[in-house]
Amino acid sequence: MTPRTIVAGLHLRWDGVWQRPQQLLSRIARSIPVVVVEEPFPAHEDRDAVIHDGPVTIVRPLRRRGWAPPFVDDAAIAAARGFAGDGPHGVWLSTPMLDALADAFAARPLIYDVMDELAQFDFAPDGIAARDRALVERADIVFTGGRSLYAARAAAGPKVHCEPSGVELERFAADVTPHPLTAQLVGPVFGYVGVIDERIDVALIEALADGVPGGHVILVGPIVKIDAALLPRRANVHFTGGVPYDGLPSWLAGFDVALLPFARNRATEFISPTKTLEYFAAGKPVISTPIADVVAEFGDTVYLAQDATGFVAAACEALHPSPVRLARGREHARARTWDAIAHRMLDVITQR
């Protein structure tokens, strides 16, 4: 039975960094209306802000209690119900902390899209690991955003589907003018696009900034959950802060080499970085630490480095990239578009 509406519970802000949930739900909403309920946001008064983004309606609970439990309350449920209308409702969860939506809307089906191992991130809510296991057991459909996430949940049976994240090929493969900051820099530019948090290996950034004469390192994205004072301060290290998603291709256009400078820690054990395909689509050579999913899927395409010394050596090698690697990267990007992924996932939802 195809649901009339999908009610989605997100731990991300719809208008924040544009990530997997926004990419998928904005496309699924072309076929089935979507009502998003976000986790509560700290405010001076209790009310629900409502945002309309095409066929997606977002309910943002503003609460004086901030991020304290409950992560979804009766007021937010009532607001969402007013937009969702009559059932049957599918419920889509990107976090188990909003599992109350499954009961509130008598989910048919209940979909759990596992985009990250949230329990292993800094400041994870208490009890999230146990609720994740319970939600995998309860859900009708489980999608996972990478191979490692799939392997950790495959025992739940055929309802678990591995659907790694994709790319907006036309956007990132477009021939665009480099951002003015990159255009004015003299020397090779090494760039990272994404959230700057506990997953970033600061020592790699420092080594790269110091190890390539005349080089520059640009980190494009918001700084969250880490002390900004711990980040490297060099004249050739540039932090942009958060930038609009639409502007990312111009930053990539100014990179000579794209970076996946991830630490090897709990927060990165299961990651499958979406930005890898964006880099490939933009035609950039990519250097990475040996993140499991990156090695498994793109080990013959990226330049891999085990430590800071190797990262600098790989960066220098990537300044003269192999045409074969660049061609492989473009092929990977062409094979993994968000449109195709959302279509497959919608088929699973509507055909069960």
Explain what this protein looks like in three dimensions.
The protein has 352 residues and is α/β, with parallel strands linked by helices. The protein has two domains: 177 residues, Rossmann fold (3-Layer(aba) Sandwich); 167 residues, Glycogen Phosphorylase B (Rossmann fold), CATH 3.40.50. Helix content is 34%, strand content 20%. The strands form two sheets. Strands 1, 2, 3, 4, 5, 6, 7, 8 and 9 form a nine-stranded mixed β-sheet that branches. The chain has a six-stranded parallel β-sheet with strand order 12-11-10-13-14-15, sandwiched between helices.
By CATH, the superfamily of the largest domain comes out as Glycogen Phosphorylase B
Q: Please, how many helices?
A: 14
Number of strands: 15
- Computed Rg: 21 Å
Shape designation: globular
CATH architecture of the largest domain: 3-Layer(aba) Sandwich
Return the CATH topology of the largest domain: Rossmann fold
CATH class assignment of the largest domain? Alpha Beta
Fraction of residues in helix: 25-40%
Low-confidence stretches: none
Distance between the termini: 7 Å
Number of structurally distinct domains: 2
Structural classification: alpha/beta
Q: Mean pLDDT, nearest integer?
A: 95
Measured by DSSP, the beta-strand proportion falls in 15-25%
Provide a concise account of the structure shown.
With 352 residues, the protein is α/β, with parallel strands linked by helices.
